[in-house]
């Protein structure tokens, strides 16, 4: 793979620059709960393989102002982070929350890490956490599948600091000149987007982020987050009886929970934001995706999913047009100064109180086998790494749902923060339990 282009794709450049401008960013987290001891030899093979696939990289910045950054090879931390002392099984989710606080950095490293917490009862919880600037949901899922299956993937990236400063300046300057046509097209797309999104720009302006500062550790908060395990057969039967699909049942639950959390507009509707993968065979982008926003009336979703299903289908059909509007300006990412990036955060979230949704659907069985054997439960989450109550309140709170199906079980993760509170896991557990009960679903809530 000599001569491979290590330049970040525009969307990945935007993700990284946003992280630096804000001083924080989302993390992708997988976790596996074993009700028996894990095979540490198997986990170390998994860890070794992870560093030789899509996760095997870090970002090296261009020395040129407004130059595009590059990928460099990085095989990961020296070893798995194993907790010194066991903890009770009941504290599994608390430990997963704590792991989100451990620093992750796509440039300085570690860009990802694998950690294990043994249980006093004899089992263990394993977690893999990575910067979203390194991988989106499908990328980390693919990396896990390949690593668990013993596959490696040489991306062909150079070692860190392989280019001299002079070489980097010359190469990146030439690339900047070649990108001028991309900038011209992106400016036109940005003008169109601004014109079509005038109302959202106006309503989002007040949510602009201040310049990042040294965070007072005592002010950091953990967004309440829980996981519900639902029998896959029960999930299937319920979606069919409501005239829906797995994705529309997931959307219906998100809509109902959004209504319960007060995330509705003046008409009582909720706005669900879905990532839509564009990942192709051999795709090495960290974020190979676009997105769609779906407006749902949550009133009758527990009686029928036909309207939800139709709305999802309609938005997917119209995706090519909305995709251009959404991704057309991304070539401007290297040119955006940090101050403007912070002002754009509110617009990226959209007007009102959107609900983040990520349904990975049926997972390859290998994704549930980090030590080579099936875990009893899998957890899929996306959470902000280091955030305060003030930031969450300014952004209008958050509600994010993620799901995956494997080993006969649907794992549904929910994280939520109400602006001004109250916020707690107990309150969130009551909300999730009530909504699932309305759908006729029985779940074990972690």
Automatic annotation (TrEMBL):
InterPro entries reported in the protein's UniProt record? CAT-like_dom_sf (IPR023213)
**UniProt-recorded name of the protein:** Diacylglycerol O-acyltransferase
Q: Which organism is it from?
A: Mycolicibacterium aromaticivorans JS19b1 = JCM 16368
């Amino acid at each position: 793979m000599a001569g491979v282009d290590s330049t970040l794709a525009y969307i990945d450049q935007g993700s990284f620059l946003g992280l630096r401008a804000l001083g924080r960013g989302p993390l992708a987290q997988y976790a596996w709960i074993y009700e028996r001891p894990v095979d540490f030899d198997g986990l170390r093979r998994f860890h070794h393989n992870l560093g030789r696939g899509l996760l095997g990289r870090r970002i090296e910045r261009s020395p040129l102002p407004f130059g595009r950054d590059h990928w460099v090879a990085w095989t990961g931390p020296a070893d798995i982070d194993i907790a010194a002392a066991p903890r009770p099984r009941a504290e599994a989710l608390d430990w997963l929350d704590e792991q989100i606080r451990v620093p992750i950095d796509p440039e300085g490293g570690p860009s990802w890490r694998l950690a294990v917490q043994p249980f006093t009862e004899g089992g263990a919880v394993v977690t893999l956490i990575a910067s979203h600037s390194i991988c989106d949901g499908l990328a980390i899922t693919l990396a896990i599948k390949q690593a668990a299956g013993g596959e490696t993937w040489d991306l062909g990236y150079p070692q860190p600091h392989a280019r001299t400063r002079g070489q980097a300046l010359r190469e990146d300057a030439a690339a900047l000149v070649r990108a001028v046509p991309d900038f011209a097209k992106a400016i036109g797309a940005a003008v169109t987007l601004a014109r079509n999104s005038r109302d959202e720009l106006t309503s989002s302006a007040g949510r602009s982020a201040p310049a990042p500062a040294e965070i007072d550790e005592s002010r950091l908060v953990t967004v309440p987050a829980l996981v519900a395990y639902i029998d896959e057969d029960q999930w299937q039967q319920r979606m069919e009886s409501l005239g829906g699909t797995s994705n529309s049942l997931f959307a219906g639950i998100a809509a109902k929970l959004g209504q319960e959390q007060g995330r509705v507009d003046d008409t009582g509707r909720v706005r669900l934001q879905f990532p839509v993968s564009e990942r192709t065979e051999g795709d090495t982008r960290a974020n190979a995706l676009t997105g769609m926003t779906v407006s749902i009336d949550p009133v009758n979703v527990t009686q029928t999913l036909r309207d939800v299903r139709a709305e999802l289908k309609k938005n997917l059909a119209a995706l090519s047009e909305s995709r251009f509007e959404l991704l057309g300006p991304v070539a401007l990412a290297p040119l955006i100064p940090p101050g403007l990036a912070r002002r754009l955060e509110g617009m990226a979230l959209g007007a009102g109180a959107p609900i983040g949704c990520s349904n990975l659907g049926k997972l390859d069985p290998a994704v549930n086998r980090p030590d080579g054997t099936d875990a009893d439960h899998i957890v899929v989450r996306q959470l902000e790494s280091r955030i305060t109550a003030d930031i969450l309140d300014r952004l209008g709170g958050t509600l994010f749902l993620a799901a995956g199906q494997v080993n006969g079980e649907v794992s549904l993760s929910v994280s939520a923060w109400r602006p001004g509170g109250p916020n707690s896991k107990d309150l969130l557990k009551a909300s999730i339990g009530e909504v699932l009960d309305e759908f006729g679903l029985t779940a074990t809530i972690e």
